[in-house]
Amino acid sequence: MLFLFPLVFASCDLGGEHYSRYYDYVDIDELSVPDSAMTGDTVPVYARAGAPNGCWSQLELYCYPYNDTLYLVNASGLYESHDGVCPEIYVTKDSTFRFIPDTAGVYIFAAQSRSKPVMFDTLVVMHAR
Domains in the chain, please, with CATH? Predict the structure, then answer.
């Protein structure tokens, strides 16, 4: 029985491990903005991000202005893997941003993804009475 122990121990390769860790963009799966609002209203901008496997964690969503009428929505996450082995689960996170328009007009929200086409949603803002 003692001769099996060295054989089993020698078959373990402890030096071949490949470790990857980085932050990168992930996909936006859903973007939802009301059709219309009044100036001064608090408008909910909902977005859901998704990553393809369990090596992804710490997903964060962002919504920020590109110019006066275009707002970008995107998400990033942490990818961490040993030898590229990842649990087969879809990782998601959602968030609702509060947008308060102070000027009437048309606002465009563009959801940027890593592997999907850009999604657009439009908000028409009218003057408050």
Answer: 19-126 (2.60.40)
